[in-house]
Amino acid sequence: MVTGAHHHVASTTFDLPLFRERNRPTDRQLEYLLSILRDGRWHTAKELKVYGFSDRELRDLVENSDGQILSFPGSPGYKLFDHVTIDEIEQAKALLNQGRAMIRRFLRYRKPYHRRT
Question: What residue spans define the domains of the chain?
């Protein structure tokens, strides 16, 4: 019986919102964000909410901007890459550390997951 319960948990995991396919941002949304960032300043997520962007939309837009927008853990927000300084690019290396930490976390989950399946 316990085994069946574990299979049920594993099979419903992919129904969670985290695993649903998200809508990809439109070119129009990206161009709108880029036009705001062309002033060369850092903009916080809170500032950009005034323009109608949610936190998730901002993350998706950055992810799909082909490197045009810089944002990283500990950054002041979002900035057009054309306006970043060398120092700001160096600070962006925090992305590598965050990525490594996320991979290590996933690998820790993998072993207990396989014990359940």
Answer: 23-116
User: What pLDDT is stored for residue 3 in this prediction?
Assistant: 46
Exposure of 88 in the CB half-sphere (CA atoms within 13 A): 18
DSSP string, 9-74: HHHHGGGSGGGSPPPPPPHHHHHHHHHHHTT-S-B-HHHHHTTT--HHHHHHHHHTTTT-EE--TT
Distance CA 81, CA 73 (A): 16
pTM over 0.90: no
Q: What is the DSSP string of 6-25?
A: HHHHHHHGGGSGGGSPPPPP
Tokens 């069946």 label which residue? 4
